[in-house]
Specification:
By secondary structure, the chain is of the alpha/beta class. The chain has a single domain, classed as Rossmann fold (3-Layer(aba) Sandwich), CATH 3.40.50. The chain has an eight-stranded mixed beta sheet, with helices on both faces. Helix 3 packs across helix 12 and helix 4 crosses helix 5.
Length: 304
């Protein structure tokens, strides 16, 4: 009998293909799919699940609060022909060991151990939302091991109230408005990180988004959100030391992360820029994958 871990250990790309591929292709073509290697990394108190697909310069994808490694299916399909794509499920997220509510201060050390285990160097880090905590903390401990950083809908462990804004009240006002919008979406069965537009215009995608979230729901995520907030104490000025080329990607309709924080932070970073996708919510990588992938593709191509 299959259990949740058996299902989650399967390839996210295969899941996507079964849902969205045409059943009768017009022309039969020979296709070679990059091999996916799967494994578990032993860590203190748990095992961390990971997948490696493709070959080339390494990209590591760090998922957000409401998902797991499978959420990157649209990125792996795009990048694995030219890059070594590494996805993983943060500790506590199935198929990684269920440990109750995980301690997010351990995420960066798990990432460091995975990079060492896979013998990767010169890595490119792609972080979605919660993944920003993982990646920023990893870089602070290992500043010379990262080639490029993409922060999507996140400023990670940076203390948000300390981000310099022209209007000091802007963040508090946004928080009130966004909280009301999220509560309204939840009442109507919409996943707030997916957003109203995805639910309305891409209902199949919204359903898949919720299914991935439900499959990896092994603990109280709101408790983890509180722990992440407590952990977000880094002063914005710490980013002045980031010499790594950095791309912020934000959604113009995001009600989970205030996109204007990214605009403010690029002024502190010597090699940072921001791209906003106006008709997207929090999960640009999922909702507007073609645009997101193109932004990442061009950013990485310029870095080499």
């Amino acid at each position: 009998m299959l259990d949740r871990r058996d299902i989650l250990a399967g390839s996210a790309t295969a899941l996507a293909a079964s849902l969205f591929a045409p059943s009768t292709p017009a022309v039969a073509q020979a296709v070679t799919i990059p091999e996916t290697k799967r494994g578990f990394l032993d860590r203190p108190g748990c095992k961390v699940y990971y997948e490696v697909t493709g070959s080339g310069p390494p990209i590591i994808f760090a998922h957000g609060l409401g998902s797991n490694h499978m959420t990157w299916w649209q990125q792996i399909a795009q990048f694995s022909s030219r890059y070594t794509c590494v996805t993983f499920a943060h500790r506590g997220y199935p198929p990684s060991t269920e440990v109750g509510v995980p301690n997010p201060t351990e995420f960066a050390a798990d990432l460091a151990a995975l990079i060492e285990h896979l013998q990767l160097s010169d890595v490119r880090l792609v972080a979605q939302s919660m993944g920003g905590w993982t990646c920023i903390e990893y870089i602070l401990a290992n500043p010379r091991k990262v080639r490029a950083l993409i922060l999507a809908s996140t400023c990670g462990s940076i203390h948000r109230p300390s981000v310099p804004l022209a209007d000091p009240q802007r963040l508090a006002e946004w928080q009130r408005t966004a909280a009301a919008a999220r509560a309204d979406m939840q009442r109507r069965g919409i996943s707030p990180p997916a957003g109203e537009r995805m639910a309305r215009e891409q209902p199949a995608l919204h359903f898949l988004y919720r299914e991935i979230a439900n499959a990896s729901a092994a603990f109280d995520r709101e408790e983890l959100r509180k722990r992440l907030t407590v952990m977000a104490t880094r002063p914005p000025d710490i980013l002045r030391s980031f010499a790594i080329p950095t791309l912020f990607i934000t959604g113009g309709e995001d009600t989970t992360y205030p996109a204007f924080l990214s605009e403010a932070l690029i002024g502190l970073m010597p090699k940072a820029k921001v791209e906003q996708v106006s008709d997207s919510g929090h999960s640009v990588y999922f909702q507007r994958a073609a645009i997101y992938n193109d932004l990442v593709e061009r950013f990485l191509a310029n870095i080499g």
